[in-house]
């Protein structure tokens, strides 16, 4: 395979679909076939190809509907449209709206392969847990099978190749430092220092010295020259966590350093050139902080060259069993305990919780459960005690809002790896009713079996 490049092919003409697949497979690409827009969207719920090639005119939703879905939900995924001569104006208009390209039928195989190669050269790398390809080193610490996270990591792979400042946003506990480290490790600076500082954890009077350093005699106790974090990170990356809590006076000095690419240690008259990539993070709404007069707008735009939002754990609930078992292995080894599994009740409770503290909270709950367990199995009672709350249960399907039906079903199929019996039980429906629900939303449960977790 050409670097294991995956292409999703969409056409309601099965013969043309097979022919296209044969040509691309012969050229070294891995192909997946979908005979409708609905089937393609179903596939995109659980996997990420590097490219989509779709017919324009199909029964049901057409190729433009598929492009609109991809453009809205997976904007980094390139799309090539196949079109008859009569729909060329539509295809040209679509190209102006973001479609990578289009080909007229019958298409020239050489032109097809040329467009595919150009599209794939622009497409971000896609690596999934189910892939047989070794995962890049920068991704090894990120545990996920969530399509939302895969989209984010694809952006990380692309952003890391440059030197633009990156602002990470998201709730507390979602893993902003982990993602910042991944950006550094995926970049050309990976062999240079990665230095972190929490701007909210250091008193204002010390923060300037920590960042920029100080000269001997600059203040009482400054008995020698002290290098700041900008100097320690020279050539590498500096991660400014909780940047929204930085005092206004220091914001001005940080802005000057970023604009001029120099720093001046406290008490020194000498300016020092710096070569540092800035990655910052906050759980605050910085635009609201700007309006309130707590954050400089000019600094915001210096930091926000590229913005990435990390989803909450509730937005990637299919990752909860995966993360819980990962933490279980880590903490069982750390505390030298022979514990290797959660009870079904414990897993159900983990899935039902809202996780306001996100991954950090889940990690703490698992560690507390491991410490307190006297047997090889983590019980639901231990998890409930660690959560300091009463037992909850997964919301029944009838209680879920109708507009979230499809997302609800997709998450359950991911959690159960396509096991309809378990999925139906979890949704509190018999198998017949559950199959009808899957058919209503055109969900193919067999696609989810590849997600079977390896514990």
TrEMBL record:
Please provide the Gene Ontology terms (biological process) for this protein. Answer: phosphorelay signal transduction system; regulation of DNA-templated transcription
Indicate where the modification 4-aspartylphosphate is found in the sequence: 55
What the entry lists under Gene3D superfamilies is as follows: 1.10.8.60, 3.40.50.2300, Homeodomain-like (1.10.10.60), P-loop containing nucleotide triphosphate hydrolases (3.40.50.300)
Where does the Sigma-54 factor interaction domain lie?
142-371
Q: Which UniProt keywords apply?
A: ATP-binding, DNA-binding, Nucleotide-binding, Phosphoprotein, Transcription, Transcription regulation
Can the keyword Iron-sulfur be found in this entry's annotation?
Answer: no
Superkingdom:
Bacteria
Family annotation (SUPFAM superfamilies): CheY-like (SSF52172), Homeodomain-like (SSF46689), P-loop containing nucleoside triphosphate hydrolases (SSF52540)
Q: List, alphabetically, the Pfam families matched.
A: AAA_lid_14, Response_reg, Sigma54_activat
InterPro entries the record matches? AAA+_ATPase, AAA_lid_NorR, CheY-like_superfamily, Homeodomain-like_sf, P-loop_NTPase, Sig_transdc_resp-reg_receiver, Sigma_54_int, Sigma_54_int_dom_ATP-bd_1
**Mind telling me what this protein is named?**
Putative transcriptional regulator of two-component regulator protein
């Amino acid at each position: 395979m050409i670097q294991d490049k995956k292409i999703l092919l969409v056409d309601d003409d099965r013969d043309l679909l097979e022919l296209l697949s044969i040509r691309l497979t012969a050229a070294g690409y891995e192909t997946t076939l979908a005979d409708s827009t609905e089937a393609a969207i179903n596939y995109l719920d659980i996997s990420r190809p590097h490219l989509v090639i779709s017919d324009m005119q199909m029964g049901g939703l057409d190729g433009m509907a598929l492009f609109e879905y991809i453009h809205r939900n997976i904007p980094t995924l390139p799309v090539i449209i196949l079109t008859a001569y009569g729909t060329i104006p539509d295809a040209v208009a679509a190209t102006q709206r973001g479609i990578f390209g289009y080909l007229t039928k019958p298409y020239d195989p050489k032109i097809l392969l040329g467009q595919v190669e150009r599209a794939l050269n622009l497409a971000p790398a896609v690596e999934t847990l189910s892939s047989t390809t070794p995962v890049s080193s920068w991704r090894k610490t990120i545990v996920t099978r969530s399509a939302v996270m895969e989209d984010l990591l694809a952006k990380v792979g692309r952003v890391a190749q440059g030197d633009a400042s990156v602002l990470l946003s998201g709730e507390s506990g979602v893993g902003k430092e982990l993602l910042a480290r991944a950006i550094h490790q995926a970049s050309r600076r990976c062999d240079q220092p990665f230095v972190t500082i929490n701007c909210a954890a250091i008193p204002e009077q010390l923060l300037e010295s920590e960042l920029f350093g100080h000269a001997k005699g600059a203040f009482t106790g400054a008995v020698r020259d002290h290098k700041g974090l900008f100097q320690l990170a020279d050539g590498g990356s500096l991660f400014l966590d909780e940047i929204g809590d930085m005092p206004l006076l220091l914001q001005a000095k940080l802005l000057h350093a970023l604009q001029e690419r120099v720093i001046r240690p406290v008490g020194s008259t000498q300016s020092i050139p710096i070569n540092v990539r800035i990655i910052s993070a906050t759980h605050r709404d910085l635009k609201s902080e700007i309006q309130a007069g707590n954050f400089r707008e000019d600094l915001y735009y210096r930091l926000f060259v590229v913005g990435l939002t990390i989803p909450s754990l509730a937005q990637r609930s299919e990752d909860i069993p995966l993360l819980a078992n990962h933490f279980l292995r880590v903490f069982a080894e750390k505390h030298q305990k022979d514990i290797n599994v959660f009870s079904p009740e414990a897993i159900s409770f983990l899935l039902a919780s809202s996780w306001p503290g996100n991954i950090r909270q889940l990690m703490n709950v698992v560690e507390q459960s491991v410490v307190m367990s006297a047997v090889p199995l983590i019980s639901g009672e231990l998890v409930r005690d660690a959560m300091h709350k009463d037992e909850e249960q997964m919301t029944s399907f009838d209680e879920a809002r109708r507009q979230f039906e499809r997302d609800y079903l997709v998450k359950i199929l991911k959690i159960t790896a396509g096991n309809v019996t378990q999925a139906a039980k979890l949704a509190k429906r018999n198998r017949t009713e559950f199959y009808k629900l899957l058919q209503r939303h055109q969900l193919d449960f067999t696609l989810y079996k590849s997600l079977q977790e390896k514990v």
